[in-house]
Design goal:
seven-stranded mixed beta sheet; five-stranded antiparallel beta sheet; alpha+beta; 10 helices; 33% helix; binds biotinyl-5-AMP
Length: 321
């Protein structure tokens, strides 16, 4: 009902709508209207109330509120359900708990700030206000082995959106980052709950540094991280970006389900930050250096060492030589 009132006030933006009209159009009491208006004000909506004239919407808060995210989203299933938190430990953990309770495919969890944001291998992810910290629940019918490819597909979705909307040279750093000007602007954490041959759910966690001042990052990442605001020299709409990312993620996921990894792999190679560089990879068995030659059909990184040996790396951290 709150969303209905908001929609109505948006439709009539610039004019007062009387409590009577709202109550008549929505079939609720005027006291209920008043209560919902107060709840909207508490969320940060600027609504002027004038006796006899009614209510007028003056402004919306710069928050990723479900109503705003869903408005005009136009996706088939992704983002039909959105959970929003001002502050949370980790959106991935929230998404996991929702998925465990049966939340449907495409459910989205978004937060303004995370106090326990996670990277891979228990590393921490700095998540101050101004970023997009979002997790998506998927329930793909394919084998668990396929899931790492979803990380690259998601990096592709984010990269496409950043290139389109900011015209910055965003590139995919294997296996889970998006880089701009040699710095990390986005990290992806894919978590999964599965049996040997069946996925129960996948959580795709995307952390995108949008309107963040470098000084708001902890000191240890200031030298390697960047944000869109730093690169563009001005802030950019997080809402519009988030909607575009959800749309693009759905497209890439549909493509994956329909045509497999091949078309995604092709585009990931073209937009790769890693390929062609001499890199050092820290992967389970130790360190290995070589030239990054290709991304395989299974999403692994192929390296050629200076002795000409070919190495296939399925996961790890890539550093530049
Ligand atoms: C990642 O891990 O890059 C995955 C990050 C995923 C974050 C999202 S936010 C929404 C969802 N909820 C979560 O709790 N997580 C996901 P990894 O490749 O392990 O990189 C982690 C490393 O990146 C850290 O050790 C730092 O060096 C660096 N780092 C931390 N915060 C950063 C930031 N905001 N921007 C750039 N680099 C950062």
């Amino acid at each position: 009902m709150k969303d209905c009132i908001l929609r109505l006030l948006k439709e009539e933006k610039g004019r007062y709508v009387s409590g009577e009209e709202i109550s008549g159009r929505l079939g609720i009491s005027r006291t209920a209207v008043w209560k919902y208006i107060n709840a909207l004000k508490e969320e940060g909506y600027e609504i002027e109330s004038r006796s006899r004239a009614g209510y007028m919407l003056l402004g919306a808060p710069d928050l990723l509120l479900p109503f705003e995210v869903k408005e005009g989203l136009g996706t088939r299933f992704l983002g039909k359900e959105v959970h929003h938190f001002s502050e949370v430990r980790s959106t991935n953990d929230e998404a996991k708990s929702l998925a465990g309770k049966g939340a449907g495919e495409g459910t989205v969890v978004v937060a303004e700030r995370q106090i326990g944001g996670k990277g891979r291998l228990g590393r921490s992810w700095a998540s101050p206000a101004g970023g997009i910290w979002v997790s998506i629940i998927l329930r793909p019918a394919f084998q668990p082995l396929e899931a790492p490819k979803l990380t690259l597909a998601t990096a592709l979705a984010v990269t496409r959106v950043l290139r389109e909307e900011t015209h910055l040279d965003a590139r995919i750093k294997w296996p889970n980052d998006v880089f701009i000007n040699s710095k990390k602007v986005c990290g992806i954490l894919t978590e999964m709950n599965a049996e040997l041959d069946r996925i129960h759910y996948v959580i795709l966690g995307i952390g995108l540094n949008v309107n963040i001042d470098i000084m708001d990052f902890p000191e240890e990442v200031r030298g390697t991280a960047t944000s869109l605001m730093e690169e563009l020299g001005k802030p950019i709409s997080r809402l519009q970006l988030l909607r575009s990312i959800l749309r693009e993620e759905e497209k890439v996921y549909d493509l994956f389900l329909k045509d497999g990894f091949a078309p995604i792999r092709e585009e990931v190679r073209n937009l790769s930050y890693t390929l062609g560089k001499w890199v050092t990879v820290n992967y389970g068995k130790g360190m290995v250096s070589g030239k990054a030659l290709d991304i395989s059909e299974s999403g692994a990184l192929l390296l050629r060492t200076d002795k000409g040996r070919m190495i296939t790396v399925t996961s790890g951290d890539v550093g530049e030589e």
